[in-house]
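pinned: reference chain
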Amino acid sequence: EASKMRRAVVFVVFAAALSAVSEARILDIEVYGAVPFSKAHAKLNGQALIAALQKAKPTETVLIPEGKSYYLMPQAPLKSPARDITFQLDGSIILSDAIAEWPLDPDSAGGKYLPFLKVTDATGFRMVGNGVIDGSGHRWWWTFAVGLLPDIKRPFTFDFEFCTDLAIEDVTILDSPRFNVYIEKSHKVRVNRVKIIDDWRAQLATQEVVSEYRRLRKDEHDDSWKAKLPTEQWWMDYRQLTDLLLRLPMFPFNTDGVDISGTDIIVKDCIISNFDDVVVAKPSNRPHRFMGLPPTKAEDFTWCTGDMLIQNLTGLYGGGASVGSVHPTNQFPCVDGVRFEDVTLWAPLKGVYVKPDHGICENERTCRCLIANIQYENITLKQGQKPPWWDDFESDARAKVLFVKPDTENELYDLLTFKAAQFKAFAEQIAVPPHVTLSTGDERTFGSFLEKYKIWKAKRAHEPFDCRWWNYLCMVWPIWLGTQQQLEPDGKGSGIWPTTDPRAIVANVSLVNVSARGGTWPEAAAAIRFNASSPATGVHLENVVIDADRFLRDQLWICDDPDSAYGDTAGVLTPAADKCLVTDAQGPALLEKKAAVPI
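pinned: its structure tokens
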């Protein structure tokens, strides 16, 4: 009997100790000074979050509890945290939009704002939970669009660098100021069931507002614009931007969904609506060139981004399932081994997008980049359509943010909010695709605009095909294999119809069971644009069917040179790509190309 009593006492003590340990594994950010539901405590909440994450020990969890919401402005990056810690978001975080007070990233030499969560050199870090991060991106987008931001890049939501065994699961991100999830040179990454929603209506409304100021400014009998603009000089400085916005089908707000470089990566079951690249495989460089890392650390990361699977991806109003951009440099950036599988893109700006780009090198002999062994299989593009379940899905996601947006004294922001609601109602009324800027004054429809554009093009039918003028409709393609299309409002970027770079090595790109049906694609069926002096090799097209209501240049594959790509076809191919793909001869082998680059 005494023995049983001793065992019972031991069991009770053990259970109590186990309970204490379990409780110790949950870190409450309010213990570190966080205050929920208070915009005035945004900075303090940022300090509390980073303090909790820095204090967390292996296997401990920092918790944002369900039913609570915290305004937050980040205060510092998280460097080399303890192994195997978890950040669990069950409530909501609302990022501050006080741009003037937002801190700079200390690692960027003043060139970037600090991301909401920047984590470097972490092992076993997990970002999980069914909560929401509201990026409050509207004011950032607006300020960027009118050029009132300094020459500093807007903050990312997540920025992970040199991490191993990283997981991001189930969280929802709304209206990120810039990139949503950016993961750089990391190993064993899992991004599962992440939802990303950026308010495309507000982005388009921003264009409309800026354009409206232009109209008001031209009316000498209406000086109401003076009350809406900060100064007249503001208008003088940015009139070129407003002129451009009248021709934009999309404005480059740079709200990429998931951008990743590294190895052993799986992105699965994600739903993303972001008006830019949906999921992107970014390049990595030679490890011994990693700046700021000792050789032993650099060896932990392989040379090329690869062993990457993007599976069961759903996108709405996105800029493509993408690889790149990859620029030739003396560090030989490369992506080798990426597979996109079971992808459905609704109303996309681009579908399949493989994009080398231009490079600038000190040593021309070693100036190269590589894109190789890229597979797209079971890719469906549904142009001009939206998932029937989308509205309820987005409403549910936004309803998780437990607050009412505060009133603002910024008249421009108030006007933007009004225009966003107005545009939403108008767009739903006429079912217009989102990648066209509408004028609510004359109620132009996408179809009527395309008809006018088609007439304009017909008058120039004798001219060689190009999109060198500033026509952003030339950036909307179901398939684009070639130099990145990029043109910022200030003229930066490779261009809408950029030249090709012979220093880019592209090999073994496979498209199997790719279909684009319905809706309207403004230009032609697809583009293959590589340099004939360094052609792409191993291009495989199998059961690639591109159909639509109409193409302005008929159903064609467009290329600069028929000798710029070598490969083969199988199954059904509509339209035929024979004018842009050499199938009866072989170009230089991949190994031969790589061997030509000094290491």
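why pinned: The first helix runs from residue 2 to 24. The longest strand covers residues 369-382.
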